[in-house]
């Protein structure tokens, strides 16, 4: 079975006609293709929405595209209900039973509570349908759940338990409610399924051109919350976010996974239906993350070779984080990127304390000998002493101990003699000597770190010292890496003449790890479209894809050819040496950096373009390479119109350039400690002229 070309997610509603202006609690419908959602569509009433969906079904069929249309309400009731109502356990008989009875209007007025009374009449005692919008109307429907036995039919379906769905299909009012949506939704499905070429999952064969399936947005709730929270203060509509993320997630899901979910339902599902993805919330939520706009890699129009700075400026402006947020203990947050700013919970130090072992007392005369009566107590770190130290007295105090009341100065133990229950020392001693003030390092509520900062070992110390135990951090960015080329052989394999070892993959894997991300090895792909397509599908599970090779515009440049098909590709002709065209685009919504195959060009392009981009996608700051000027140990002329990077190393305060600037010379990368960046203009560098050297770490790597 092939996958689906188009995903539709409908957020159904049982309410009255919604306002003209898009609002919540209305009907929102969203379409996604290739992992990217279109703008969600708002419908004011069910009749319009149904007509729109029917049109879509016809259009997709006419275009030969497979459609998976999902709806956010139960397609079936708990076992036994259909039989009790219609005499048959076939869910479609119940759908038709409802379709005959439910009346709907353009204003949204409907007879669902009358129909619920008729349903309840088939059962002894109150219920099972309950909850209504007027306490005194529809006597056959109880207002509250109390007193309903659910003995003839269970309150929840098996899949509701598996998915931990909050609401029962018998609950017709009060949030979280879904019961009214079912009554107002099944009649619509009953009509759609008769359109021809339409099958209902899991009741019917799932290889039809159009499949209708039940979905529950609660499965991706954490992702929805993240987006809604991030958009606080704007007029964000939760339902709108929900359908878009859900459609996107289903459309990004690898075909095999979706096929497996559609194929795996227990026997109960034949009557009760099933929630697509029930029990797999973690997987689905993993795909429900914000995606970039289709045009995020577009370059300024009309420029033949784009200057490096212009390309970087556009890249920076269009990228945004794609990773989710999770709360972690500080001790497990090393190298993670903060998703929110962190403030000190308490001051550091929290109390005034002593910096040395010695004797504490109140102030002191600047000059002359001191004699102070020694108290018997000892102030040690860890236990705050309740004793006050009176004027003329001193107390033994150990490093880190809070200053007891009355003490503001500490004299070093080495400067003191003890006799007759008193300490003596000679002045001068400054009041406050050898003590630390409360909050002299950090005051309570002080901002400690910004969102976007990658936590260092020192940060973990600072956060912990100031009472922060947990932090909201970004999930690590997963970067899929694959190499392309018929000539490539796996490391350790047998290389025939004309073949070369795949050197880029281990290099890029390690470079990505050094940048603080998680490399995911997708392997090697020959110059073959179908194989590359399958590899990209697999790689799209990651947050970003780095490919090397096949990125130019030639016959064997399959990466750029495939990205071109998606309509999101920009062939980056950037005025940079080394580096050939880069192919940037989205594959199933996942950003792809198609790097040149040349190892040196691949590395330079990774450091210059991919490293800052990956940082932003990971939720971090844009990286501006940090370098410094050093006198050149070489002479060189360069033409204008292109930025040049030379492999370089520092020796005796001068910077040397690698002898050959041939971009195939992989040995130069190992020889070098970093890169020299030469500006776009023409230049004649003489020995001793200052040139800008960027050490490897200056590109953001460790
Ligand atoms: P391409 O960008 O595919 O035209 O490749 C440019 C050059 O880089 C060719 O000489 C390739 O053989 C070489 N190349 C491509 N991929 C790799 C790789 N993974 N490891 C080493 N060299 C490569
Ligand atoms: Mg190639």
Furnish the topology, listing elements before pairings.
Blueprint: E1 6-11, E2 27-33, E3 36-37, E4 41-43, H1 46-62, E5 67-71, H2 81-86, H3 91-101, H4 112-120, H5 158-163, H6 179-192, E6 198-200, E7 210-214, H7 221-230, H8 238-252, H9 255-263, H10 269-272, H11 281-287, H12 308-318, E8 325-329, E9 342-343, E10 353-354, E11 358-361, E12 369-379, E13 393-397, E14 409-412, E15 417-419, E16 422-426, E17 435-436, E18 447-449, H13 457-465, E19 470-474, E20 478-484, E21 488-489, E22 500-501, H14 504-514, E23 518-525, H15 529-539, E24 544-548, H16 558-566, E25 570-572, E26 576-577, E27 582-587, E28 590-595, H17 599-617, E29 628-631, E30 636-638, E31 643-651, E32 654-657, H18 667-671, E33 674-678, E34 683-685, E35 690-695
Parallel strand pairs: 1-5, 5-7, 6-7, 12-13, 20-23, 20-24, 21-22, 24-28, 26-31
Antiparallel strand pairs: 1-2, 2-3, 2-4, 8-19, 9-18, 10-17, 11-13, 11-14, 12-16, 15-16, 25-27, 27-28, 29-35, 30-34, 31-32, 31-33, 33-35
Helix pairs in contact: 3-6, 7-8, 8-11, 14-17
Bound molecules: adenosine monophosphate (AMP) and magnesium ion (MG).
